[in-house]
């Protein structure tokens, strides 16, 4: 590419084997067996391997050609060295609505236009998971069947970005008291944080400041993400053409993200299940060491024909609230000797705090009628018919906005539908 106004000419050589994943065979094995030979009881088993799905994103992380943006100040006048105001000199180019080079402030980042110093480790393998399941299905009567299923999913070869020039020994610890969370009544009432606790915080030694962003290598690690679930359900055909279905799911996902030695504060990262905040390193990195409860989810759904050709349907769902992870960024002034990096500290233990359980009832009424070869269906739905208002997310960062509600269950909503088939 030829030179532009702000950058010199560019040439990017081919980067081969990015990635070079060989033999990515993903076996899927399933069995089903008719236990008594009468077609009424089936046992099923499954073991399947799934690789992380990537398109161009993986290669893009390491591509030599990178795009970046920069903000420059421009006042249509000769700019001072700091790039904050006019120098006071008035030239013929001042006020001409053209941004001459002498009018543009300095670039804001010394790494502008450069790719990040991040590379894959030689021989890095693709992240995958194994999923196992076992199920029993049984037909109780001619109208009712039930099933019990167990699921387990384990991730392997998880990638960790290692700052190779940074280890835990590059940090110095100090203590700070638990910050005030008195402005969040829910959090106070939950009693999961000890207002008297002294927290150990780590500050990166300032000599390492310059290399914190350098020599980042993505490696396979022993980190784990383990999901277990049990699902019980029944389905039945009611007399007169109705159906009824019910399910109960008990599940738990545990993250074990302890491989990183880059930050003993345990910064937040998304888990591989719901994307909730979990610790990457630090004292909460192994969720198996904490009392993380199983969560329960219930569903009941049915539909039933009622007089005048109407069909009535209802779905009742009950979900456990997601985990609430309270974080804190200690002020720069509280770091002895000056803060090197801003640090986000997770305050709540894994499994300690959850949003409230929420229930949702959806109703619908449907009528189908025919005229000649055409079929018409009219339908009215009420989503969240009870207008429940459960809290989905709150501000979880210590500060003036802690506890502020950010999202709730969508309010009651009616939908009218009409369908014609011909
Ligand atoms: Ca100008
Ligand atoms: Ca490291």
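-> sequence recovered:
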């Amino acid at each position: 590419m030829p030179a532009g106004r702000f950058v010199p000419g560019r040439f990017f050589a081919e980067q081969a084997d990015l990635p070079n994943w060989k033999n990515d065979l993903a076996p899927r094995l399933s069995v089903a067996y008719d236990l008594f030979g009468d077609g009424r009881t089936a046992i099923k088993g499954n073991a399947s391997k799934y690789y992380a799905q990537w398109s161009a994103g993986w290669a893009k992380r390491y591509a030599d050609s990178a795009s970046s943006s920069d903000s420059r100040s421009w006042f249509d006048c000769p700019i001072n060295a700091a790039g904050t105001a006019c120098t006071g000199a008035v030239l013929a180019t001042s006020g001409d609505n053209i941004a001459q080079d002498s009018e543009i402030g300095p670039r804001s980042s010394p790494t502008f236009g450069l790719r990040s110093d991040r590379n894959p480790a030689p021989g890095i393998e693709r992240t995958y998971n194994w999923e196992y399941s076992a199920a029993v299905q049984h037909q109780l009567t001619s109208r009712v069947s039930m099933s019990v299923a167990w699921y387990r999913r384990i991730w392997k070869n998880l990638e960790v970005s290692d700052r190779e020039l940074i280890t835990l020994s590059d940090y110095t610890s100090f203590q700070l008291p638990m910050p005030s969370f008195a402005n969040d009544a829910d959090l106070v009432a939950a009693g999961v944080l000890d207002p008297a606790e002294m927290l150990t915080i780590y500050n990166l030694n300032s000599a390492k400041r310059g290399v914190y962003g350098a020599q980042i290598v993505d490696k396979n690690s022993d980190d784990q993400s383990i999901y277990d679930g049990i699902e019980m359900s029944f389905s039945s055909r009611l007399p007169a053409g109705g159906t009824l279905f019910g399910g109960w799911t008990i599940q738990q996902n545990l993250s074990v993200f302890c491989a990183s030695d880059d930050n003993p504060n345990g910064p937040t990262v998304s888990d591989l299940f719901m994307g909730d905040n979990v610790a990457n390193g630090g004292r909460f990195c192994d969720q198996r060491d904490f009392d993380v409860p199983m969560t329960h989810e219930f569903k009941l759904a049915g539909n039933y024909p009622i007089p005048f050709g109407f069909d009535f349907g209802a779905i009742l769902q009950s979900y456990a609230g997601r985990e609430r992870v309270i974080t804190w960024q200690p002020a720069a002034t509280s770091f002895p000797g000056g803060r090197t990096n801003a640090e986000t500290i997770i305050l709540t233990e894994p499994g300690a705090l959850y949003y409230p359980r929420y229930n949702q009832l959806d109703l619908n009424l449907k009528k189908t009628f025919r005229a000649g070869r055409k079929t018409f269906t009219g339908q009215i739905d009420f989503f969240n018919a009870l207008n429940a208002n459960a809290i989905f997310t709150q501000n979880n960062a210590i500060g003036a906005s802690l506890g502020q509600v950010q999202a709730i269950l969508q309010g009651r909503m009616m939908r009218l539908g009409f369908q014609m088939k011909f």
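The first strand starts at residue 28 and ends at 34.
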